[in-house]
Amino acid sequence: MEKQDQLLMKKQNKNLVLDIIKNKSPISRTEVAKVTGMSPTSITRIVSELHSQGFVRETELVTSGVGRKATLLDVCRDVLYTIGVEIDKLIIKIGIVDYVGEMAAWLSIPRDEAESYDETLMKVNRGMRDLIEKHQLPFEKIIGIGVGLPGSIDYMNGLVKVSDQLKWKHARLADDLKRLTGFDVIIDNELKMKVIAENFKGMARDSQNAVLVGIGSGIGAAIILNGEIYRGDSNNAGEIGHTVIDPTGNVCNCGKIGCLATYISEGAIIADSKKIKNIQSIDEVFAAYRKRDSWAINIMDRTTTYIALALSNILCLYNPEVIILSGDTIEKLPELKGEIERKCELYIWEPIKDTLKVVYSGLSNQGVVLGAALQVQNSLLDLD
Ligand SMILES: [Zn+2]
């Protein structure tokens, strides 16, 4: 074996052992050896390395078998922290997450629709520093920042190609935020960050094939195929908002006619409502729906029909075991759930329907932040 390969294998083994301790703790060395198929000697060596690096600690003794004592292993949750950030049109959310994915600190700051790119970045930096100080978290244990935002994102190069919601174009977000904060920064589309959190501890926990759909100011999806995020060629896989569903329909802000987003997004709902009432916000539409105003019921009835159709199309394309619905529209108007389910019953193809689970995100408003912070661990943590 080449020296390079040996080093790589050593690194992979170390990652594997740490992953198992993290996911199955408390666990004994013997059990780790059994799960990995590695020799007890290798496990002892790797565990002692991880112990001296601060990742693993020994916990209580338990009796194993015939009166023998075994020491159990656990991970140290405060060995490192990562920062997750969500930047949305009207809000910035910041969370600091520990090594086992628990939120150690949380803050949300309003964002002005008209504020500049630099102003938003400054807010993120200030908010993050306030949070670290307030919770007295050790700076040197923070390994990086992950940012989730709406739009088409070149995650490899840390570039926001375009974000209609934030009105940003060709922004070198990762570099700019690194310069400002001093931390390494990774970025990605918000739903792709969120699906990581769903896969780690949410409704798609340990799922190999899952789809997360976000419905709010826009509509989009993030797809996990065979246990990994499916990105497509340019990280735009899942952008269902711009699938055309009616070539004679409404004009979309992307320049095309009849995109799905023009029937489902908050902006589209408000625009249609304005034809009848002097409506300024989505909350007013939802309030009218609750009051059973017929115009609001009709508009939302059309919306849920298009949501169900979109779900049915996604299901035929990817055949996931679970589809998670999330986003402001469903959180603000949970009454829609029953409507969507009833229409799914009509539109979803029989062979798929039997095994499929349609569920709702339980991560509330923290999903993107949590996923972004977890992705920092996945991408930036180097055990050497
Ligand atoms: Zn469009």
From TrEMBL:
HTH crp-type domain location: 20-74
Which keywords describe this protein according to UniProt?
Carbohydrate metabolism, Xylose metabolism
Checking InterPro entries in the record gives: ATPase_NBD, HTH_CRP, ROK, ROK_cs, WH-like_DNA-bd_sf, WH_DNA-bd_sf
Name of one Pfam family that matches: HTH_24
State one molecular function term (GO). DNA binding
Q: What GO biological process, any one, is recorded here?
A: regulation of DNA-templated transcription
* Function recorded in the entry: Transcriptional repressor of xylose-utilizing enzymes.
Q: Per the similarity annotation, which family is this?
A: Belongs to the ROK (NagC/XylR) family.
What's the name of the protein? ROK family protein
